[in-house]
Amino acid sequence: MSEGNVAADQLRLLIERIERLEEEKKGIGDDIKDVYLEAKATGYDAKIMRQIIRLRKMQPHDRQEMEAILQTYLSALGME
């Protein structure tokens, strides 16, 4: 029975840890929303800022490949 108590205690601690991290994640998400609202109030476009952040996370080669494919598609559709 002792092993069951140890496993239950470990499970409880892991769940509590996850709950704390979820709360922190929510707080960080709220902070990010506040920064986007501040940027919007200053005249920046939050949608474009999100795109820039997404692009900055990409590897340069992947970003260049995506941009080349996008240009090919735009050209094929006569959108250039």
Automatic annotation (TrEMBL):
Q: What InterPro entries does the record tag this protein with?
A: GapR-like, GapR-like_DNA-bd
Could you list this entry's UniProt keywords, alphabetically sorted: Coiled coil
Which chain positions lie within coiled-coil regions? 4-38
Q: Which Pfam families match?
A: GapR_DNA-bd
Indicate the segments forming the GapR-like DNA-binding domain, all copies. Answer: 7-78
Query: Which GO terms fall under molecular function for this chain's record?
Result: DNA binding
Write out the similarity annotation: Belongs to the UPF0335 family.
Put simply, this protein is called UPF0335 protein F4U95_09825
Organism per entry: Sphingobium limneticum
